[in-house]
């Protein structure tokens, strides 16, 4: 009964949404407003990274009569996504300084539809679901590289046995005992991932497995990151059923149909359904995506940014202000407009923005001639709010060696958990990507390409980070100790990505809720937020956030009160829903 009620609820919400407006389709031209007078005169986009550019692209389609200004602190657009080719003897090698592959999961719908809209389908490179890069992921522990079991192994027992033998899976039996562990006290509203896993399963699983995985996504510390935000389903299952394992079986045992069920936040489920219905792509692209574990582009992920930038620069609606820092946002008295205060900037690090300072404009700011003031009807900001999350800095070292197959393992790469003794990881590396396997088809030479990622949570209290020379030396030292690679690299690059990854630490949801309320109260929906601090740390998350924000502007009207954080303000309880078996293409 309960399940039917929830399904009916989602369906009625969807019917309501879809009956009140035409569907959006990546192929058909987007719906225009009934009256072009409805478009805001002036829109500001703060930040020219992936979230800013994607927001600009979507918003321009929906508001063709608006004048849109993009503000970016650095001289280049594209944010952390940067792909560069290096000449080496015999050809060229491509290095990614930031993200490099995307996963074609349902949350990637907006990205894939964007790839199609930008005519980039021919540029895409796929890694198949059967490739070693998809099935072979490793964890270094305590002094060797262990391959993780994968469902495609057929018989997973040999890999499981090896992981048990090495001690990597120590405490795994705690999963069975989880059924009998006491439920968390009612007054616990969040806790760290480390504490949650130690309490429910075993501390060693937290320190070995969870720590490795969270180094590989957030470069983060399991003792600080929030279990409620990062592992929402297990967290909710314990809250509702007293145990994660019994909760999962409970949900599925009561299912009258043969579908797999899970817990969903109602907003997430509606968004997933909307993406599935509204964002269909051509049959060939859909088929290729279905068969892929990850994808990128022949000339790297920057292809997407360059194409977006090209479309934006070719559109007279836009003005782009690079090298421009944002100082503050002020509500203009007697109007609904927002004043954007900016100045020219030489800073290469991204600037946070205090959205809701206690006072609006200081008198020294008011008469500062170096500050520029412009009124806007709508501001879409991708700038991080400093009080919401801390961030970590990650040093990325790309290396190319002329000898092929230097790595003694085939696969995506390996991660290094916090439990690895210091003497095995004095460089404070987080993991190593085997680029030659991870994405094929980007280089015209066939040596060995790897990336070493260092820092992140390990550098939390550091006032100074390793220089480029030190970074290279550290990366080479990791490769020599862990993989036996001692060759001179033919090409290399070190990039230090300052404050690159926000950390959703314990209490994040409460802080986000307060932030959303304050932002709404102060700017009445004229300032909306998108980006890795709000939507998730991946490229897909950022594009999905931009798509969803633009969809909200269209459906709710740009004069609506939403700030783009509807999920955190949605009081509806989590509900049991069938896991979506979505199809990519229209056919
Ligand atoms: C060693 C450090 C890092 C590696 N990648 C990242 C860091 C900090 C950054 C990163 N990786 C993922 C994301 C999430 C969003 C996305 O774009 O998909 C981010 C910001 C994805 C990811 N990488 C790994 C996992 C388990 C995930 C989650 C989704 C998935 O299963 O693909 C594992 C992983 N990351 C790195 C390595 C070497 C590695 C595994 C061997 C590098």
Key features of this structure:
21 strands, binds ligand LM7OVKF4, globular, 587 residues, FAD/NAD(P)-binding domain, 5-stranded parallel sheet, 20% strand, protoporphyrinogen ix oxidase, domain 3, alpha/beta, Polyamine Oxidase, Chain A, domain 2, 7-stranded mixed sheet
What this model shows, in words?
The chain is α/β, with parallel strands linked by helices and 587 residues long. It folds into 3 domains: 199 residues, FAD/NAD(P)-binding domain, CATH 3.50.50; 177 residues, Alpha-Beta Complex (Polyamine Oxidase, Chain A, domain 2); 104 residues, protoporphyrinogen ix oxidase, domain 3, CATH 1.10.3110.10. Helix content is 34%, strand content 20%. The chain contains 20 helices and 21 strands. The protein has a 7-stranded mixed sheet. Strands 10-2-1-14-20 form a 5-stranded parallel sheet. The longest helix is centred in the N-terminal third of the chain and has 18 residues. The radius of gyration is 24 Å and the shape is globular.
């Amino acid at each position: 009964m309960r399940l039917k009620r929830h399904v009916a609820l989602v369906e009625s919400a969807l019917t309501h949404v879809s009956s009140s407006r035409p569907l959006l389709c990546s192929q058909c031209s987007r719906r225009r407003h009934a009256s072009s007078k409805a478009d805001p005169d002036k829109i500001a986009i703060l930040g020219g990274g992936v979230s800013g550019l994607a927001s600009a692209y979507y918003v321009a389609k929906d508001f063709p009569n608006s004048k849109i200004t993009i503000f970016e602190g650095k001289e280049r657009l594209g944010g952390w996504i940067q792909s560069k080719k290096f000449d080496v003897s015999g050809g060229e090698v491509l290095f990614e300084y930031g993200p490099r592959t995307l996963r074609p999961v349902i949350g990637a719908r907006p990205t894939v539809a964007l790839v199609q809209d930008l005519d980039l389908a021919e540029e895409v490179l796929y890694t198949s679901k059967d490739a070693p890069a998809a099935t072979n992921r490793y964890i270094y522990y305590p002094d060797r590289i262990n391959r993780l079991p994968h469902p495609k192994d057929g018989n997973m027992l040999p890999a499981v046995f090896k992981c048990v033998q090495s001690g990597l899976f120590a405490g795994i039996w705690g999963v069975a005992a989880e059924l009998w562990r006491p439920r968390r006290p009612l007054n616990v509203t969040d806790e760290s991932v480390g504490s949650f896993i130690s309490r429910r399963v075993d501390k060693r699983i937290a320190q070995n497995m969870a720590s490795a995985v969270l180094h590989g996504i957030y470069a983060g510390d399991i003792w600080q990151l929030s279990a409620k935000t990062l592992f929402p389903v297990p967290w909710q299952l314990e809250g509702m059923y007293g145990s994660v394992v019994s909760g999962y079986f409970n949900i599925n045992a009561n299912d009258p149909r043969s579908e797999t069920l899970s817990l969903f936040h109602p907003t997430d489920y509606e968004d997933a359904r909307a993406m599935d219905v509204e964002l269909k792509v051509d049959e060939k692209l859909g088929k290729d995506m279905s068969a892929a574990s990850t994808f990128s582009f022949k000339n790297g992920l920057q292809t997407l940014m360059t194409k977006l930038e090209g479309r934006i620069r070719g559109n007279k609606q836009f003005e782009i202000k690079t090298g421009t820092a944002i100082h503050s946002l002020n509500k203009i008295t007697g109007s609904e407009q927002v004043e954007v205060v900016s100045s020219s900037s030489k800073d290469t690090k991204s600037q946070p923005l205090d959205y809701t300072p206690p006072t609006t404009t200081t008198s020294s700011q008011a008469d500062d001639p170096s500050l520029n003031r412009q009124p806007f009807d709508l501001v879409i900001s991708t700038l991080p709010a400093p009080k919401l999350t801390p961030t970590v800095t990650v040093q990325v070292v790309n290396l190319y060696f002329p000898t092929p197959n230097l790595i003694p393992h085939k696969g995506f790469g390996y991660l290094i958990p916090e439990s690895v003794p210091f003497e095995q990881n004095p460089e404070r590396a987080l993991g190593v990507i085997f680029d030659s396997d991870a994405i094929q088809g980007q280089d015209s030479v066939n040596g060995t390409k790897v990336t070493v990622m260092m820092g992140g949570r390990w550098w939390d209290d550091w006032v100074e980070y390793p220089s480029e020379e030190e970074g290279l030396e550290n990366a080479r030292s990791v490769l020599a100790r862990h993989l036996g690679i001692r060759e001179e690299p033919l090409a290399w690059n070190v990039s230090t990505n300052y404050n690159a990854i926000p950390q959703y630490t314990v209490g994040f949801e409460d802080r986000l809720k307060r932030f959303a309320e304050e932002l709404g109260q102060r700017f009445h929906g004229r300032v909306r937020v998108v980006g890795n601090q709000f939507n998730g740390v991946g490229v897909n998350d950022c594009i999905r956030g931009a798509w969803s924000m633009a969809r909200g502007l269209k459906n709710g009207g740009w004069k609506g009160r939403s700030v783009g954080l509807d999920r955190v303000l949605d009081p509806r309880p989590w509900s049991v829903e069938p896991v979506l078996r979505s199809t990519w293409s229209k056919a």
